[in-house]
Specification:
The chain contains 13 helices and no strands. By secondary structure, the protein is mainly α. The longest helix has 28 residues. The radius of gyration is 19 Å and the shape is globular.
Length: 304
Amino acid sequence: MSTDASVPLAKNEDSPRGFAFALTAYLLWGFLPIYMKALAHISPAEVIAHRIVWSLPLAGIVLIVLGRTGDIRAALRSPRMLAMAALTASLITVNWGTYVWAIGAGHSLDAALGYFINPLFSIFLGSVLLKEKLQPLQIAAIALAALAVVVLAFDSGGIPWVALTLAISWGFYALFRKTLPLGPNQGFFLEVLLLSGPALLYILYLEFDSGQGHLYRTGFADTALLLGCGLITAVPLMIYANGAKLLKLSTIGIMQYIAPTMIFLIAVFAFHEPLGTARMIAFPLIWAGLFLYSWSMLQASRGR
């Protein structure tokens, strides 16, 4: 899922078109657990490989239509760009793999928690690495998120690794993605391009060597679901990238809660995952932190 609000804005104002694009993307991400649950019988590694391989042609078509293939040619000639893209590609692979595993293994609530924590972790990173000054409300928000993690860790006897892996991997992905001087569509294409070689080799190994692949051996349903991985990966990202340019940063900041809220509701009411006492304490702490974060962001936006 993408909640990187660092996409350059065309204007510091909202537009109905931008809102429609962003809302569509977040709704698609919100319903993604249902699709991933249908793939739960397939290993996360195989699912991720198909997400990468089938995203590549879709992202390529978009660049051809937009006439931005020259950006990719320039990036391929730049060792620094390739190194940064390899780093962000590795981080997004970790994020995707953790998410796919979590949904299939019955940890959708942990996935929702990770994406709720993400914006708070991002402002923490900004403070530590970029020396951005935190407002008092932001400090309180981070403290509430940290307290929620402590509650979950105390209850389970270990750290909530799914939630933290998702938040940390996406937080660093968004941070390093800012240093890649490419637009969102070009950057996404370059990332999946770098990953597509190993992913394709892995798919061929599963299908023709080990005999454990699901692309054509296990029926039409699996074939359609795996081929559809490209659509469910690339389309929301492309829609979001175009919507974010037409919205204010504060609007994107508030809208990013739509997807994890939907994941939370699907986990509880569709997948029937138990909340438990610790989660019933931790989630309200996170939500309180997000309220403080959102309030501080809106106040700053009004001040500007």
